Amino acid sequence: MSNHVYFIWQPLQHYTLTQIQTSFTTYTAKMLLKKLSQSTPGILQEIKVNKYDRKHQIWKRESLSIELFTENTFMQKLNYIHQNPVAARLVPNPEDYKYSSAKFYELGIYEFGFIIHFSGN
Question: Structural domain boundaries of the chain?
Fold first, then answer.
């Protein structure tokens, strides 16, 4: 999606959801800012903030996290994520969206190298 991202993840070992989310947002914000400063420096002014701990705001604070306790809830959220680019009219089919796991689930094409099927396969 052009302005947001969805993930379904499971903490491994001793990591908490908060640690994972903080690590992800910190790293990706740094990488996005680096890329933007090289390719489109003018856009940095649009995301400038006056905060004690940062000059720019990439990710929305207090992003929505939902624990998926049941398979039904998991499937509902996975289907929503897969259908989101279709609803936004970015692609005609979920598996056509480049950054979606739908291709993995629908066609068995494994492009990302880190997706594990929710059933463990």
Answer: 15-62, 71-107
Amino acid at 4: H
Residue 100: burial class (beta carbons within 10 Å; 0-12, 13-18, 19+):
buried
Neighbouring C-beta atoms of residue 10, cutoff 10 Å? 10
Q: Please give the mean pLDDT across all residues of the chain.
A: 85
C-alpha to C-alpha distance for 73 and 81, rounded to whole angstroms:
12
Q: Is 102 helix (H, G, I), strand (E, B) or coil?
A: helix
pTM comes to: 0.73
Q: Name which of 95, 97, 99, 119 is nearest 107 in CA terms.
A: 95
- Tell me the mean pLDDT per 10 residues along the chain, length 121: 76 83 90 92 88 86 78 90 94 93 84 71 49
